[in-house]
Every structure is written in C-alpha cells, then in structure tokens.
Amino acid sequence: MNKRNDSIIKTIKKTPKNILFRITNNKDIVEKLLIDYPMIDSDMVSKNHLRIVLTNLKEVLDKDIEGDVVELGCNIGTTSLFIQKLLDHYKSKKKFHVYDSFEGLPEKHDKDKNNVERQFVKGRCKTKKEIFIHNFKVAKLKLPVIHVGWFGKISDDEYPKKIAFAFFDGDFYTSIIDSFNKVYPKMVPDSRITIHDYQWEVLPGVEKACTDFLKDKPEKGTIICEDIIGIMIKK
Ligand SMILES: C[S@@+](CC[C@H](N)C(=O)[O-])C[C@H]1O[C@@H](n2cnc3c(N)ncnc32)[C@H](O)[C@@H]1O
C-alpha cells in the first residue's frame, strides 16, 4: 500500500457516513461505473474509450433525445455491458440493439490499406453470440436485442425507427459505410454517433468512410476526435 492510498483510506474512515454517501452519490455516474465494474479484458477498447462513449450517451440521456440505442460491432460485449449499465442507471425506456456477424471482420477494402506494421485481416475478432449472452448473464444485466448478420444485409426493419445514440465499431471501410447507411437516416436531431478507431493509423478506412459518407451531408467536417473516438452530432 503506498502512502497516498494509505492516507485516502484514513480520510475515508474519518469521514462521517452521511457525507461519504453524498460524495459517492454526487460522483459522475460514468466515472462511478468505470470504477465500480471491471472491464472484460478484450484488448479491443480501453477504459478511456469507454469513458468517451458513455459520456456521449449520458449527454443524449440527459437531454432526453428521442429514440433507441444501437451498437454496430458488439463482439463479446465489452462496451455493450457498460451501455446497458448506464441505461439501467437512468431507468431508461430506450431499447438497446446490438449487431454483429460474429464472423469477425469482412474483406479489406483498398481504403483500409495502411503503412504500419500492425495489420487487421478478414476474420479477426470472430466470436460467438453465446459468449456475448454469457457475459450479460454473469453481469446480471438485461440482454439487448441481438441481430446476427452483416450490417448491410440486416433488413432496415431490424434497426429501430428512431435512433438517439449509436456506437460504430466495425473497424473497416465498408463496415462503417454500411453502419452509416443503416443508422444515419433514422437519427433524430441532436442524436449522436461515436465511432471507434477514428483517425487511428492502423485502421485508416474508418475515417475515410466517415468523410466519404458525410461529404454531401450537413455534418460534413464536424466530427470531433477524442482519443480515436469520432463524435458526430446529427443536425
Ligand atoms: C473490434 S470488434 C467490436 C468490439 C466491441 N465493440 C467491444 O466493445 O468489445 C468488431 C466487431 O465488428 C464485427 N463486424 C465488423 N464488420 C462487420 C460487418 N460489416 N457486419 C457485421 N459485423 C461486423 C466483427 O464481427 C467484430 O465482432
């Protein structure tokens, strides 16, 4: 135990319980979730990425933006678990839909080619829907609606009619283009999309897909990047 931790513990012990309760309760809910619950060690998202995604979802919930929540590329549910936890905290009536082929990444597009050593290839991240379900069971959380298939091939009816928040995590150019094609037309004003791996040199197709899709949209050039998470707010 280092000196700092030791002194924090002493301070906590001395703090009256009612004050301690107030401090814990006032803590930002995103930080509280990140402290209280362990992340699955999946090597796909970092704690700070989760922080950024959840903070944007919190904005949407605080502003009571109409519509449901979607994640395209849920894999084993590392991010999905935290999205569900935040929705539960808000006692939100929004439905949470997740999408994945569970076959891993599709074929690479020319726009995915990079100049770095690290290469992502077709089939990477392949997993099983059962693992996603198991992780939700272990966490004792309500299971989202799971849609199995390639984003572009899943019928429009399987995407919610109105979308308030989306997390895109499909890694490759075509996956992000397909995500936009399915989700963008259903987004309401002030809804948000957070896009993983934006401006990350290993997956250049992600930013290219955002630029190409938005070139004739009012949101052209408005994506903000925070620690390789792109954030788009629908006009
Ligand atoms: C990096 S993982 C997602 C990680 C996940 N969001 C998390 O928090 O751990 C990418 C996932 O996207 C899926 N995927 C990629 N492109 C897809 C596409 N076009 N259609 C369906 N699934 C896709 C892969 O199967 C993979 O599970």
Q: How is this fold's topology laid out?
A:
Blueprint: H1 3-14, H2 17-26, H3 29-36, H4 47-62, E1 68-72, H5 78-89, E2 96-100, H6 129-138, E3 145-148, E4 163-168, H7 173-183, E5 187-196, H8 204-214, E6 224-226, E7 229-233
Helix pairs in contact: 3-5, 4-5, 7-8
Bound molecules: S-adenosylmethionine.
TL;DR of this structure?
With 235 residues, the protein is α/β, with parallel strands linked by helices. It has helices at 3-14, 17-26, 29-36, 47-62, 78-89, 129-138, 173-183, 204-214; strands at residues 68-72, 96-100, 145-148, 163-168, 187-196, 224-226, 229-233. It folds into 2 domains: 1-28; 37-233, Vaccinia Virus protein VP39 (Rossmann fold, 3-Layer(aba) Sandwich).
Task: Write a structural description.
- With about 240 residues, this protein is an alpha/beta fold.
- It has two domains: about 1-30; about 35-235, Rossmann fold, CATH 3.40.50.150.
- The chain is about 40% helix and about 15% strand.
- It is built from eight helices and seven strands.
- Helix 7 links the parallel strand 4 (about 165-170) and strand 5.
- Helix 3 packs across helix 5 (about 80-90), helix 4 runs parallel beside helix 5 (about 80-90) and helix 7 (about 175-185) packs parallel to helix 8 (about 205-215).
- The chain starts with a helix and ends with a strand.
- The chain binds S-adenosylmethionine (SAM).
- S-adenosylmethionine binds near residues 74 and 79.
- S-adenosylmethionine (SAM) binds near residues 42, 79, 106, 172 and 175.
